[in-house]
Amino acid sequence: MFRSMQEEMVLNSFIGMIIVCIVLGYGVGCINLSFFLGKLKGFDIRDYGSGNAGASNLMITMGKKIGVFVALLDVLKAFLIIRFVMFLYPGQLLAAFICADAVVIGNIFPFYMGFKGGKGFASLGGSVLAIDFRFFVVLLIIVTAIVLISDYICFAPIFASIAFPVSYSVIYQTPVSMVYLAATAAILYRHYENLKRIAQGKELRFSFLWNRKREAERLGVDDDHGDGKTIPFRRNPKN
Hints:
239 residues; 0% strand
């Protein structure tokens, strides 16, 4: 009987850990700074640019500096909440990965935005950085090369979200990291339309950052006054 009570307490503690990790991770992941900044400017960021409520679309609609700044904050918020969970549950790698899952899913599916948020790239970066900075450095180098060679940013989160849990599992001989495949699935789901647009030749290229007007002409979008500088960068409804 005593052993049964101990087992029940351990089980309850384990379930409690999972709930705490999910609630904290999802709650922080739901904080969408790009959406709030767009609202402060009087528009819904999801109606412009790539239609995504994330830092990359913030670069399109409001400029590179604010986009980079928000991307860094998004990475930081994911990093901090996962580190906090690791502090709460020292030595519990599962807690870190569950929280990382929840952060990404919260960013992609925030409840107050009709479950249509960002694409999880910055949250993915913050997750990797929090769990193992060496993986972060290696993946950062690889995905940077992928983006520069392909000229499409969407390949970076797709690759990293698959490579991180799989390579972590292989290198450290632990199945725990495979829990992160839930986040991978969410990221793949959100990038499906990007892959379709690439196949159709309609996806915005990474070189947009320095060739804005050329990309506007290539995609047939209305860049307001056509000066290549005015924002927001609106997609032509006819396309």
